[in-house]
Amino acid sequence: MGDSAYDRLGGEQALRAIIDDFVDRMFGDLMIGFFFRNADRARVKDKEFELAANVLGGPFEYTGQPLRQAHAAHPIMGGHFARRSQILRETLAAHGVPADIVELLLEHTESLRDQITNQPDSQCVD
């Protein structure tokens, strides 16, 4: 085991368990679950894992479409983006993820906002 956040978290097995739970929560969520009606759950889990593993210093690269392109067809509003972040926060807490790793993942998520939604914050815009 190394010193990366990925290693401290427990490596691939631990991160996959967290991501599996996270994606299942998103798919079942009343506010954002509809975005995933036609999505391949296994693929979403795989791509979310790749993103998180890469951010945490794991030996994986993201192999999906560019995020802006992957989300362009969906009318994702700031509130939807915030809901995903909240689900991530709750999932990480449920798995006892250390605070510094939670912060790293949430900061990274926020850094992707402009690739996912054109709303600069989580406020509804008229």
The number of E-state strands comes to: 0
**What level of helicity do the residues show?**
55-70%
| The named CATH superfamily | Globins
Q: Report the portion of residues in β strands.
A: under 5%
* SSE series: HHHHHHH
CATH topology: Globin-like
CATH class category name: Mainly Alpha
Q: What is the SS-derived class?
A: mainly alpha
Question: Helical stretch count?
Answer: 7
Largest sheet: none
Radius of gyration: 14 Å
Report, as a whole number of angstroms, the end-to-end distance: 50 Å
Report the mean per-residue pLDDT as an integer: 92
Q: What's the domain count?
A: 1
CATH architecture heading: Orthogonal Bundle
- Shape, per Cα inertia axes: globular
Low-confidence stretches: none
Structure description:
This protein is mostly helical. The chain has one domain: Globins (Globin-like). It is 61% helix and 0% strand. Helix 2 crosses helix 5. The longest helix is centred in the first third of the chain and has 18 residues. The mean pLDDT is 92.
